[in-house]
Amino acid sequence: MSEKRKTKEYTEVSEAQIAVHWKEEEYFRPAKKFIEQANARDPDIRKRFAIENFPDCFREYADLLTWSEPYKKVLDTGKPPFWKWFVGGKLNACYNCVDRHLGQYRNKAAFIFVAEPEEEPPLALTYQELYVRVSEMAALLRDFCGLKAGDRVTLHLPMTPELPITMLACARLGVIHSQVFAGFSGQACGARIQDSGSHVLISMDAYWRAGKLLDHKVNADIAVQTAEEMNQHVDKVLIWQRFAGKYSSPTPMVQGRDFFVNDVLKKYRDQRVEPVPMDAEAPLFLMYTSGSTGKPKGCQHRTGGYLAYVAGTSKYIQDIHPTDTYWCMADIGWITGHSYIVYGPLAIAATSVMYEGVPTHPDAGRPWRIAERLDVNIFHTSPTAIRALRRAGPEEPSKYHYHFKHMTTVGEPIEPEAWRWYYNEVGKREAVIVDTWWQTENGGFLCSTLPALDPMKPGSAGPPVPGIYPVIYDEDGKEVTAGSGQAGNMCIRNPWPGIMQTIWGDPERFVNGYYKRYCKNPNSKDWRDWPYMAGDGAMQSADGYFRILGRIDDVINVAGHRLGTKEIENACLTVADVAEAAVVPVTDEIKGRMPEIYVALKPGHEGTPDTINRIIKANEEIIGRFARPKHVYVVPDMPKTRSGKIMRRVLASISNRRDVGDVTTLANPAVVEDIRKMVQGKDAVVSGEAVPEDIAKFGQND
Ligand code: WT7
Question: Which one of 23, 180, 238, 613 is most buried, by most CB atoms within 10 A?
Fold first, then answer.
């Protein structure tokens, strides 16, 4: 790394050297009423999870589960960094989330489904009903599809109860599910089918989004075709119906390949399938996420460690009790939904609300009407949703009679301004807030205050959660100390049960991407030599709280979802006229960051509105609608170094109204001013605001 830095033409201060000037915010304290009922109100929890007690402290999380065979060893570090958790133990994730609650909670709602159209009444699915439906679906997967433990199945399902039913049915058999967010395009789904080696795709005909019943079946056809083109054959496509018994898509079914789940299920009515005891280390699911190369990474999560970790953090950080009504307003298609709508809450017998649609549909009062009607008392969402709801209806929460005891924010850094609105207006100054920092790779929360024990500090994720020991390293592997005002690379010193096992089919990428940079000794079998590198910039205040500053790699966090710049650039390059493409992040009032695209066209081509539309369309088709860029600029040439590298850092400065710095040593310095004028207008518009850390550093490694 330091070698790379030396050879750079434009040496910038490293992230560790950038002193981050931000005001220390005042603490907020949890309400007494909250503390009295909290699952974690004994400060001894920190002693129990002290580093001297590692890894045995995590027995406490494993004990929240029911094991069909007890584990023999908590942590096996024999093959770093491929840690093994709860070695020798056997359990079934579906049994732990469903069957074992039947005795006490048979008639309690496991899920309450809220459809987007407000006239469709909420639907409560009891644990008993969930058990029946999961069991029937498991019978179908086993006997109709021939699926068995270890096989992969791709799901491309929207936010309806059929999604967790299908996931749990897979888990019941030990089948590895790979749910792809429904907002991903058919092509993106197809690439994930190929990577995971799935022969079965499970999708739905249609779903409601922003007032429209979207045709989703069409994406299944594109996905299968894309996978076929990549030499992955899909034998069966199972289509759930948004309205059972009625087909809501204009796209025809393909005879012999496509089947309506509701039709086939009739054959399995009332069938009971025994949960298959799985090795603690058996993979439970894959969750794809973007990285800095174009190819998405299939994060492979294990059964025992993952389930124990999400159960423990749901109990202590989310503070869920079986009597609570808990609503995580995320999509199950992302890791937040897997861990904190389905597996974590169900493992501890919660009632988990799932909402199909857009938070601001039909108006910004919708979430608060849902909360009031269902008497939700724990609420979980993202800064993007908070900003959008605040902008569209700052006074809306006060119009409704709901009371939250606890609220979560996740996915991006939250501005103290937005935090205070969340606290004062949404939480009505009664609810405690946890700002939870973690990643798809991590399984569950890594930093967050313990809600009854630690004061909150707006804009700060807080201390690490029990059993997690972070460290911030500078470029040279030196520790950046708390209170130094310096930023560096956020790392975790120790393994934990929720960490992914590997990247599906690419163990090297797992080692190189997360462990190589700060590994102290590649031959060591001691976990202390293998810190995990998260890829985020961070700083630690004197009080030990961590402030996450954003990605340090070429990943853009759009509304809490990762997009790889390479993925977007590759999509642009599929448009025939495009010679070169560069993507940079720009700040956005609602989404935090958005991609902005610069393209140079092949000789003889002109940048017409049609060109721009085709570029946008290519992104929507190859990645998905949520990847829509904020702007597309057709430029005469890209700013380049003499060795021909595109200077994304210069483009990012122009897009974000920052000073471009010294560009005189570029191969084509004059083009910078042309581009600047095109983007900002004739007069230089340089914002005086502090530069967000991730944007200041963007493209520095180019
Ligand atoms: C990236 C992970 C796992 C949650 C959903 C996103 C950013 C996540 C926070 C937070 C500041 C946050 C980081 C991280 N991030 N939570 N509370 N404060 N930043 O999962 O798509 O894997 O993205 O989201 O940059 O690396 P993801």
Answer: 180
Question: Rounded to whole angstroms, how far apart are CA atoms 267 and 264?
Answer: 6
Does the pLDDT of residue 680 top 50, yes or no? yes
The CA-CA-CA angle for residues 333, 380, 336, to 5°, reads 25
Question: How many whole angstroms separate alpha carbon 631 and alpha carbon 616?
Answer: 9
Tokens representing 161?
């109860």
Q: Is 62 in the pocket of ligand 1 (CB under 6 A)?
A: no
Give me the helix-helix angle, 565-573 and 609-622, nearest 10°: 130
- Residue 5: the pLDDT is 39
Q: Which residue type is seen at 6? A: K
Q: Enter the DSSP assignment of 144.
A: I
For residue 10, which amino acid is it? Answer: Y
Ligand 1 centroid to Cα of residue 623, in Å, is 20
Rounded to the nearest angstrom, the distance between the alpha carbon of 16 and the centre of ligand 1 is 20
pLDDT value, residue 688: 66
Locate 86 and state its tokens.
């709860």
Percent of the chain residues past pLDDT 70, beyond the cut: 96
Distances (CA, A) of 344 to 338, 449, 578, 599: 8, 18, 46, 44
354-399 tens-digit pLDDT: 999 999 999 999 999 999 999 999 999 999 999 999 999 999 999 9
How far is Cα 204 from Cα 238, in angstroms, rounded to an integer?
A: 8
How many angstroms from the chain centroid is the CA of residue 381? 12
Cα 624 to Cα 31, 187, 292, 398, distances in angstroms:
42, 9, 18, 35
Q: Give the helix/strand (H/E) hosting 435.
A: strand 432-436
The pLDDT value recorded for residue 315 is 98
> Which among 111, 150, 516, 545 has a CA at the least distance from the CA of 325?
111
Residues 695 and 652: beta-carbon distance below 8 Å: yes
Q: How far is the CA of 299 from the centre of ligand 1 (A)?
A: 15
Sign of CA dihedral 77, 78, 80, 81: negative
Residues 6+ apart with CB under 8 A from 564: 290, 291, 292, 293, 294, 296, 554, 555, 556
The candidate with the shortest Cα–Cα distance to 85, out of 441, 438, 496, is 496
Q: What is the largest CA-CA distance in the chain?
A: 74
DSSP symbol at 549: E
What is the DSSP code (8-state) at residue 555?
E
Check if 550 has its Cβ closer than 6 Å to any atom of ligand 1: yes
Answer yes or no: pTM beyond 0.90: yes
| Helix/strand number for the chain, H first, E second | 23, 30
